[in-house]
Amino acid sequence: xxxxxxxxxxxxxxxxxxxxxxxxxxxxxxxxxxxxxxxxxxxxxxxxxxxxxxxxxxxxxxxxxxxxxxxxxxxxxxxxxxxxxxxxxxxxxxxxxxxxxxxxxxxxxxxxxxxxxxxxxxxxxxxxxxxxxxxxxxxxxxxxxxxxxxxxxxxxxxxxxxxxxxxxxx
Length: 170
Description:
Blueprint: E1 8-12, H1 17-27, E2 35-38, E3 44-51, E4 55-64, H2 78-97, H3 101-119, H4 128-146, H5 153-165
Parallel strand pairs: 1-4
Antiparallel strand pairs: 2-3, 3-4
């Protein structure tokens, strides 16, 4: 079921995968992505972007990708963790709107294991609202601890639309 938050998935075929993989961040620059990153948890290489709107776009390659472990939290990884969180939550918002509560529940557990728990959120969130609130509180604490302020660009792009279309509140 398509929703206003549905992502756009494009399968990319190339005989020069490594060259495309290395060049992709530069190639997508003219799109001005709010978030652009390789998916740490996909079994195939997948370049995930959030474009203004927000619109989520995934470029999926038919090349195996090793699933990465949960995030290691440092001052240097905070921004990438933030980008990953808002990309994941935007995708989950689409599943929520489609009534895919089984997927949302399962993915919230996975989100907790790979991202929320490493940043200090102790309980698995029971909803998108709880995930957002727990994430923001833990992120703010980490910013204080590391004396580092990260950009809120992804949050400011995703959260207003997520609030308008789902039951996520502040």
